[in-house]
Amino acid sequence: MHSTSQTWRVGAATITRVEEQVGPNDLPAGQFLPELDRSRFARHLPWLVPTHYDLESDRLITSNHSWLIRSGSLTLLLDTCAGNHKERPWLPRFHQLDLPFLERLEAAGARPEDIDIVLCTHLHADHVGWNTRLENGRWVPTFPNARYLFSRIENEAWDPDVGDRRRANPGRAGMYDDSVLPVIRSGQAQLLEGEHAIDGILRVEPTPGHTPGHVILKLLDESGGAVFCGDTIHHPVQVCEPDWSTRFCADPVQARASRRQVLEHCASHGSLLFPTHFAAPHVAAIEREGEGYRPRFVHAA
Ligand SMILES: [Zn+2]
C-alpha cells in the first residue's frame, strides 16, 4: 500500500509527512551530483537500490513532501512542495501539477486555515508551490491565517525586480510572482534576519550554500530533538558522502560546510534528521562513520 502521510513523535511535538510526489529525478545521478565518484557510489548500492536509486535508469529517487509540525498550540508547515497549476516548463517534474496535496494535508489533520506558520527553507520552485493557489484566475495565499517566514537574504536573492533579473530570467520571475509575491502583498510574509526563535523549542538558523539565504529549523529538547534540513542534504547518499553537493547548489563549497554542520549536530545531539526529499522511510538518525556519517532510518510511529 502506498501511504501518503505518516507521523513521528519527537519529545512533545508531533511531525507528519504530507506527500506531494515520490519518483526518479529528471537527471542522471552523475549530473545531479557532479562530484559523484562511481566507485564510492557503488559501495552504497546495496542499501540505495531500489528505494533511493533506480539502477536501470541511473536516476536518484527523491520525494517531495511537507512537514506538518505540531508543537504546543502551534501548527507549522515546513516547505510547501511544487503546488498545483504552476507554469514550470523547465522543470518537467513540477510543471502544471494537479495533485491532491491539500486533501492529504486535511487527512493529516490540518485544513489550510489551521496553519499558523509556513516556513520555506529556501525559495526554489519545489519549496514554495503551495504558498499560493489559483482562485478565479488569481494566485492567493493558500493558508489565510498563516505568517509566512522567509529569510531576508533569500528573498533579496530571488526578487525579480532587482537589476535586470526579470528580463534575464522570466521563468524564475514568474515563479516569484506566483508563489512568493502574493504572500508579501497580503502582508503575511515576515522576513527573518539570522537566527529566529519561533517558540521555546523551535529555532530557525541560517545554512547558506544550496541558496544564499537557505535556513533550517531545529527542534531542541531533551529527547535529542530534530533538524528539518531542507536541501542542505538532498539525498541519503550525501549523509555518507557529505562533500557531494548537487548541481542546484549555488555555492557547492559553502553547501558542503552547511551539510557537515547539520550532520555533526545530529550525530552529537542524537537529533533526528527530517529532510524534504528523502524517499521512504524519509527520516534518519545520524551516526559517524569514517570521514562521513551513515543514516539509520527511523520509521514512522
Ligand atoms: Zn528541493
Low-confidence stretches: none
Q: How many β strands by DSSP? A: 17
Radius of gyration over all CA atoms, rounded: 18 Å
Question: What structural class do helix, strand and pairing data support?
Answer: alpha+beta
Please give the share of residues in helix.
10-25%
- The number of distinct helices, counting runs of at least 4 residues, comes to 10
Mean pLDDT: 96
CATH topology: Metallo-beta-lactamase, Chain A
What are the bound molecules? zinc ion
What would CATH call the architecture? 4-Layer Sandwich
CATH class: Alpha Beta
**Mass-distribution shape:** globular
Care to describe what's here?
By secondary structure, this protein is an alpha+beta fold. It has one domain: Ribonuclease Z/Hydroxyacylglutathione hydrolase-like (Metallo-beta-lactamase, Chain A). Helices cover 25% and strands 30% of the residues. The strands form 4 sheets. Strands 1, 2, 3, 4, 5, 6, 9 and 10 form an 8-stranded mixed sheet that branches. Strand 16 and strand 17 form a beta hairpin. The longest helix is centred in the C-terminal third of the chain and has 18 residues. It starts with a strand and ends with a strand. The mean pLDDT is 96. The structure holds zinc ion. Zinc ion binds next to helix 4.
